[in-house]
Design brief:
Blueprint lengths: L1 E6 L6 H10 L4 E3 H9 L5 H8 L4 E2 L2 E2 L1 H10 L3 H26 L4 E5 L14 E6 L2 H11 L8 H9 L4 H7 L2 E4 L4 H18 L1
Parallel strand pairs: 1-5, 1-6, 2-5, 6-7
Antiparallel strand pairs: 3-4
Helix pairs in contact: 1-9, 2-5, 3-5, 6-7
The structure holds adenosine-5'-triphosphate.
Adenosine-5'-triphosphate (ATP) binds next to helix 1 and helix 9.
Length: about 200
Amino acid sequence: MRIIGLTGGMAAGKSTVATLFRRAGVPVFDADACVRRLQGEGGKALPLIEQIFPGTVVEGRLDRGALREIVRTQPDALKRLEAIMHPLVRAERARFLKQCRARKEPFCVLDIPLLMEIGEDRRCDLVVVAEAPMSTRLSRIRQRGRSGARMSMTDAKRLLKRQMSDHERRRRADIVIRTGLSRGHAARQVHALLHRLREAS
Ligand SMILES: Nc1ncnc2c1ncn2[C@@H]1O[C@H](COP(=O)(O)OP(=O)(O)OP(=O)(O)O)[C@@H](O)[C@H]1O
């Protein structure tokens, strides 16, 4: 089985590309959804989070606002949270890969926003980066905003600046899928890639 790592910066179109793979019949592991599941009601992460940040789990539910505030204000909080989340996500990912192998899937996709930052790209057979021009991503981020509100251009730029550069991501990628034009254009690139992979296997 060939493992396709999918990544990209904020609002670069990763989820859109992941959906295109899924619709083409390729199983996708969605790292963000996995984190949401682990931190959702009854999720495996909750008892561990409550242990290191008491008061953040109320009636079996994670108080995301309280956790965000802790992460924002305590210097080592993010590291401690990641120390809980990373092993749990890794275990879920391993389970996904095992299931895919058991089903003899020819390919699978790991949709991981920080794929390169955590060095997982080195363990993938092919690394795909979703990319869109900065101006497109900025306007997508501003449209989306935080909790529904439109974000200022300065905040959006600040968020993007904190991320790995497109140049660095492109350097480490095998394939770049451009999402700056239409969805149809992105779909054609995904289908062409899958066609090439199927021909080669
Ligand atoms: N090819 C495309 N054509 C038009 N709109 C697109 C295209 N790709 C993505 N979009 C839009 O851009 C926005 C961001 O896309 P998406 O959620 O796929 O990005 P993402 O990289 O997963 O974002 P994040 O990681 O920041 O959540 C969405 O509103 C989506 O509908």
